[in-house]
Amino acid sequence: MGMSVTISAATEQDAEHILKLQYLCYQSEAELYGDYGIEPLTQPLDDLRAELGRSHTLVARLGDEVVASVRGSVDDAGTARIAKLIVHPRMQRHGLGGRLLAAIEVHFAGEPAAKRFQLFTGHRSEVNLRLYRSHGYAPVATERLGPGLTLVTLEKEPEAQAYVASA
């Protein structure tokens, strides 16, 4: 008997689970860049709770366990900034990251509709870059943050929804 993964809006009670998952998931990024002081690994719980209060956060659950999450918000210019897409290591490579990315895009395609979707990752994060490109994101900018890290910003336009008028 297997369980299926469900995606839903995060609740305040999910904050601690998201923080623990974030800490686990960003270990590989920290190792890749040789920097264990990155914000996802040092973010206090109170800061995460505040972030959850000002953004839209989705979680994926396997039973009662939070196994993935993504956050985002739309700025005044209509850019939906998507951040911290995380998937538990044992759940990676099964399409869950893509499902979460699509789900948050659908949310931000609602009212008020986002004019564009934007996210970023490090230049060495090939798995992330592949995922984002496979979902239609294209690099639009790079920013060198230090000798070992260049952030790559990727964007895509929302897909036009085709509506069929009924007679």
Brief summary:
The protein is α+β, with helices and mostly antiparallel strands. It has helices spanning about 15-25, 25-35, 40, 45-55, 95-110, 125-135; strands at about 5-10, 55-60, 65-75, 80-85, 115-120, 140-145, 150-155.
Key attributes of the depicted protein:
167 residues; alpha+beta; Aminopeptidase; 7-stranded mixed beta sheet; 6 helices
Please characterize this protein's 3D structure.
- The chain has a domain at 5-114: Aminopeptidase (3-Layer(aba) Sandwich).
- The longest helix has 13 residues, at 96-108.
- Strand 2 and strand 3 form a beta hairpin.
- A 7-stranded mixed β-sheet has the order 1-2-3-4-5-7-6, with helices on both faces.
- 32% of the residues lie in helices and 33% in strands.
- The protein is of the alpha+beta class and 167 residues long.
- Mean pLDDT is 91; it is low at 161-167.
- It has 6 helices and 7 strands, in the order βααααβββαβαββ.
- The radius of gyration is 16 Å and the shape is globular.
